Amino acid sequence: MYQAQATWKRAGFFGKQYWGKGYATEAASAAIKHTFANFDVTEIVAITYRNNWTSRKVMEKLGFKHNPLRDFDHPKLPRTSKMLPHVLYSFKNGG
């Protein structure tokens, strides 16, 4: 079983002129298909801070499911950070 991490920050990955055109969704979809086809992986998880509605929308569009029982406070952020609460979405192989 493999465990890997892939991250991107929208502003760093795509210039602002490309935001809202579906490129992040397209790239993530290809990465998901590649991962399930080439590695012994049963689940992919995605996280973001709770109020990052744009990222959450992309996750949901891709078929990721939110499970509030798996949400958490990010351990590397200050307790006073607005971005402390994180949500976890998962996508299981086969749906």
What's the quick description here?
The protein has 95 residues and is of the alpha+beta class.
List unreliable stretches of 5+ residues.
Answer: none
The CATH first-level class comes to Alpha Beta
- Biggest β-sheet description: 4 strands, antiparallel
Rg over alpha carbons:
14 Å
Number of helices: 3
Number of strands: 4
CATH-assigned fold name:
Aminopeptidase
What structural class should be given to the helix and strand makeup? alpha+beta
Give the helix proportion (percent range): 25-40%
Give the integer mean of the pLDDT values.
Answer: 86
Question: How many domain modules?
Answer: 1
Distance between the termini: 19 Å
Q: CATH superfamily assignment?
A: Gcn5-related N-acetyltransferase (GNAT)
Strand content: 15-25%
What is the approximate shape? globular
Order of helices and strands: HHEHEEE
- CATH architect. name: 3-Layer(aba) Sandwich
Domain N-acetyltransferase: 13-65
Protein name: N-acetyltransferase domain-containing protein
Pfam families: Acetyltransf_3
Organism: Maritalea porphyrae
